[in-house]
Every structure is written in C-alpha cells, then in structure tokens.
Amino acid sequence: MRKLILIIVIGLAIGALFGQLMMSVPGYWLVRVGDTSFQTSFWFGLVLLLAAFLVLHFALRLLMRLSRPVSRFKVWNSRSRHRSAMKRTVRGLVALAEGRWKKAEKSLVKSADDSSTPLVNYLSAALAAHYQGRFEQADTLLKRAHLSTEGADTAVGLVQAQLLLDRQQYEEALAILTRLDRQLPNHPQVLKQLKQAYLSVSDWDGVRRLMPRLGAQRLISPEERDQLERRAYRELIVREAREGSDIETVRSLWADMPDHLRGDVELIVLYTEALVHGGQEPIAERLLRHSLKENWDSRLVLRYGLLDVDASRQLVTAEQWLKARPNDPDLLLTLGRLALRNAYWGKAQEYFEASQRQRPSGVVCAELARLFANLGEHQKSQLYYRQSVELLDKSLPSLPQPSEDKDVLDEKQKKKAS
User: Fold this and answer.
1) Backbone angles phi, psi at 395, to 5 degrees
2) Which of 191, 140, 184, 188 minimizes the C-alpha distance to 163?
3) With b meaning 16 or more CB within 10 Å and e meaning fewer, what string describes 176-191?
4) How many CA atoms lie within 13 A of 409 on its CB side?
5) DSSP state of 404
6) What CA–CA distance (Å, rounded) separates 132 from 277?
7) CA distances (Å), 186 to each of 162, 228, 371, in order?
8) Residues 167-224: pLDDT tens digits?
9) pLDDT for position 15
C-alpha cells in the first residue's frame, strides 16, 4: 500500500513538473509539404515523434523475427531437446545407482547426443553394459566417450582399467595404468588402481616401488603398507633365491629394504638362506651375529648353528652367548652342532644332553642317536632313536592306526571288502 501511494505521489509530481514546463516553454511545429501544411504545439509534436519512434522500433523487430522463422525454431527445438536429454540423463543415472542396468544404459545412450555432458552419459552407459556382461558394447561406449569430449583420456582410461580389472584381464589393465602413470605420475586414482593391478599379477617389485608413492599421497594406511612391503620383499627374496639369480640382486633388494623390515626375523632367515645359496656364507654369518645382538630369536640361533664358515670362531661366539643364556635349549643345540663341526665329540654330547634336559626334543634325540651310532655306542644310539620317534610321534596329528588285535583288524578288512 505504501509503495502504491509513493508511486502516485511521484507520478503527480512529475505531471506537475511537465505541466509547468509546457506553460513556461511555448512553441509549435510547422510542417509544410507542397501546398499542404501541418501545425501543432511543440510538446504534442514531441509526443507524436516519440510514439512514431516506438512504433517503428517494434515493427522492425517483428519483421526481423518473421524473416528468420527457421533459425528461431531451431533454437527453440535445441533448447527443448537439451531439457529432455537432461531429464533422461538423470533418470539413467538414478537407474544406474539402483542397479537397473538395462534401463540405465538405454536412457543414457539415448540422451547422450543431446546432452551437455556426453562424456558422463557414455561412461555411465559403459558401466551399465559392463554390469550386464555386455563387454563388447561397454568397449564401444568407451570409444564413443573418448570421441565425445576433448581431453577425456584420463577419465576414459581409468574407467576402462577398472572394467578390465573386474573382468580379471589384469595384464591389459596394467598396460593402460602404466601409460596413465607416465602421463600423470601422482594421480591418486591411478596409483590406487596400480596397486590393485600389481597385486593381481603378483608383480611384487611393482608393489614395493609403489608403496612410498602411496604413502606420500596418504592413499594407504601404515598397517597395510607395512604388510604389503613385508610380503613384497619376502616374495622377491624367495623368488630370486629359487631362480638362482645373481646374489647381487638379492643384496640390492636387502639394501633397498626399509630399516624397520631389516629387523624382521622371517626376512632375515630368508635372506640368510639366499646368501648361503649364493655362496655368501661369511656375509650370512655376520648378518645373523649382528641380528642376534639386536633381537634374540631361536630361529636365528638355530640357523647360525647350520652355517659352515669358521667353526672355531663360531663356537667361541656362541659360548659367549651361553654366559648370558645358560639354559637356552636352542642355543645348547646350536653349540652341540658347532662342537661337531670342530670335532669336539664329548663337548657336542654334553651340549646335546644339556639341551635335552632343558626341553625334550625329537631333533636333539636324533642328534644324540646319530652321534652315539658313529661313536660305536649302539645301545645308547638305539635308545635315543626310540625317544626321538616317541617325541616326534607326539607332534603328529591324531589319526586312526592299525589295531594290535589281529581279529579286530581282520574283521574291519572283511567289512571293507564286502
């Protein structure tokens, strides 16, 4: 209401102003054409001129529109098709999210040509076709997606790689991801898919080289990184040792290994085996000796006793360890074996027997049985062989065995035969 009153007041003020102006500025228009003349007041003539200008302006605009009816219709039709395409695209994306693959593919493909985002349509339609098992159609749609939008190489490549991984076509996916990685070295999605591809083809060298990059991008948790790095180096060391590769390759792997993994007992044992296999037992001995200083472990102690480097020095080293661990059964077993290497038969017997007293073991009994057999004490040898068998028998799984009662055994055999 207040606005209406304000407008009326302003209109009256403007009218009064023009009325005063018309009274204070008199004048007239005189137009003469041949013998005909036309005369009117100045202000009325000015209004007529303004009205004539407006009429001419709108008439010209109308004529321009009437002169281009086809182009105007095309613009209207294009806008209408874009609106319809947008609606169908939305319906297709909703169907895709709901798992209605066939409907999603149909809606997305139908609206792709008129859509303002054809790349989205074709990529989504390719996913829908893939989930239906129509792999050739999915590949065709990916090609159309690539042609629809300039600069879509990365998006199309990532979707294509993911579809290939889903189809278990790991080598093809890895080739695409390797190319993308060269173009975009720090792309997060490329790195994550590379991890999946490397694991799928058991490319452990690729996995270990990828871990620092994933960690720098915070694309992997510390726990998963540690687990994958540990497994990668374990598999690589085992493979290189099995294939009899140059020992320098294994040593290079060990040098590249993160510091915290070089203290892992399992990896130390595997690396030791590789060194021994490659004729590098002195290096293996130093590794085990230094590792035992940092982390005492029975697996390392037992492996140390199986080395054949400098038996006398090894025995002295192990006897120094015994001062700090006089009742360690694994260390006593190792000392017994080192004593055998030095031909100290009596000392070897003492160490074996001490280990057996600390913890009865089938392995120690077997060592004693073999020692006594070679010393000519066959009665003791047979006794320890029996003890060895009994101890090893306890570690075997509980399984049915033949009965000592012959009649029962014969009855079971008859039932089986019938």
Assistant:
1) -85, -10
2) 140
3) bbeebbeebeebebbb
4) 7
5) S
6) 52
7) 18, 20, 63
8) 999 999 999 999 999 999 889 999 999 999 999 999 999 999 999 999 999 999 999 9
9) 67
Strands (E), 179-228: none
The pTM score is 0.72
User: How many Å apart are CA 391 and CA 387, to the nearest integer?
Assistant: 6
The whole-angstrom separation of Cα 86 and Cα 393 is 75
| Separation of alpha carbons 256 and 254, rounded Å | 5
Q: Which two tokens stand for residue 172?
A: 């093809």
CA dist., res. 139 & res. 122, Å (int): 10
- When pLDDT is cut at 50, 70 and 90, the band that residue 19 belongs to is low
Structure confidence by residue, pLDDT tens digits, 321-346 = 999 999 999 999 999 999 999 999 99
Q: Are the beta carbons of 25 and 42 closer than 8 angstroms?
A: yes
**Both structure tokens of 82:** 């874009």
CB contact at 8 A, 284 and 256: no
Write the burial class of residue 242 (CB in 10 Å: 0-12 exposed, 13-18 middle, 19+ buried).
exposed
* pLDDT 10s digits, 256-268: 999 889 999 999 9
Q: Single out the residue of 121, 163, 118, 158 nearest to residue 139, CA to CA.
A: 163
228 touches 207 (CB < 8 A) = yes
**DSSP-derived 3-state class of residue 207:** helix
294 Cα distance to chain centroid: 34
Angle at 277 between CA 274 and CA 280, to 5 degrees: 85
